[in-house]
Amino acid sequence: MLRNLLSRWSWIIGGLTVLILIASFALLEPRIGGAEEEQVLLISKSAPEEIKYHAFFDTLTQEVYGGVTYDYFSSKGIKAYIDFNRTASREIAQRLNDSLSIKVVFSHPLSQAAFEQFVKTYHVEVHSYTMRAVDSNGMRITIAGGPEDGELVPQNLLKMVTGDITDRNSAEIKGWIEAEITTTPQDLDKMQHDPDVFVTEATYTLIYDALTPENLERAGATRAATEDIRANRNRSVQITGPSLYWNLEDEGLVEMPVHSQTSE
Hints:
alpha+beta, four-stranded mixed sheet, 31% helix, globular
């Protein structure tokens, strides 16, 4: 997984292989094994249609590693995951005075202006996001990035990435497709009716719900680690899972990106 994504940018072609890393960072493999005494299970839940989410506390790194899985190889599995998150989002939107960490999946790539307006409209705190690009051969490219030094879209990094992918088969950035954010129940509820939002992945909140001081300390977290995870959970907690937007494109639930040079 990518640690400290907020200050790191990269782009991925074909959804599988990281080709270029913009700025230096450590590329780490998720800890899915390891000695039993190193990892303590915090939460492990299963829902219908092979939907699962879990989190472990690593006593060596003093960090939380979570994951979300579902049957993203089938239309049925993808639909079940969408329905699960829509139901869960409606439920957690009824909470009072809570801070919710979710991933927003947009219904189409948003322009920079539209993305910035979304952030302003819902008063959200953005931790990371992904953008869609497409090259002249129709190959999809995912650009991962996030705010830097208080700037929502760091122009120097965006210019660097844009220039690099443009040099490779004249790739074009189509816009923002996903964002990991912190929001309120009230604003989450409003998002459910926004045509720019396809779904909000509430599984992230369900994982964070398990990160109580009692659970963390019982798992072996130091007081400092517990305080850091609770105060900076989007930085201290690593959650991995397949990109839902990619599957939505494959299923025709959102439009497949088309390069401007593609003939009609």
